[in-house]
Amino acid sequence: MKKVIYINSVATMLCLLLLLTTATASQVDMQQLPAYDTYSCTICHTSEEYIDDLNQFGVDYQSYGAWDSYLAGLDSDGDGCTNGFELGDSDGNGELDFGNDAETGNPGAAGDCAAGSVVDEATWGSLKALFSSHR
Ligand SMILES: [Ca+2]
Ligand SMILES: [Ca+2]
């Protein structure tokens, strides 16, 4: 009876260790990205509940293994914006582009990169006024 309890305890500890190792690896991976606060786990996973279910960016990141200019230049979710643009680090050097303090889109979810313009309305207005004054 003591042997069965011991085996069950060891099995439980191994399962907990496996879960802890998986969560820690995901945290470490996420912290290597230039920004992750807005979309968090869903940058790489299809939902926050199913951590084993990677989206296409998660698959690309896992198979390439590092954040750099190559991964930044891909468009994993196929929505027309590069992973680098969506994570606010267009050249993939690990630092946010000037003016960015968070992700501009989710590289693992299509359909969110056209939500905002790179140039805001006030800047567009200034540019248009500049060109209008030179006619
Ligand atoms: Ca994209
Ligand atoms: Ca996207």
Walkthrough of the structure:
With 135 residues, this protein is mainly α. The N and C termini lie far apart (93 Å). The chain contains five helices and no strands. The protein has one domain.
**Major sheet, described briefly?**
none
User: Portion of residues in helices?
Assistant: 40-55%
Ends apart, CA distance between termini: 93 Å
Gyration radius from CA atoms, angstroms: 21 Å
Please tally the β strands and state the result.
0
The overall number of domains is: 1
Give the helix tally.
5
Which stretches of 5+ consecutive residues score pLDDT under 50?
14-22
Beta-strand residue percentage: under 5%
What molecules are bound to this protein? calcium ion
- Would you list the SSEs in sequence order as H and E? HHHHH
The coarse silhouette is: elongated
Mean pLDDT across residues: 80
Concise account of the structure shown:
With 135 residues, the protein is mostly helical. The protein is built from 5 helices and no strands.
Summarize this structure as a short list of keywords or feature phrases.
135 residues, mainly alpha, elongated
Helix/strand layout:
Elements (H helix, E strand, L loop, with lengths): L1 H30 L24 H9 L4 H5 L9 H4 L34 H12 L3
The site of one calcium ion has 7 residues, from loops.
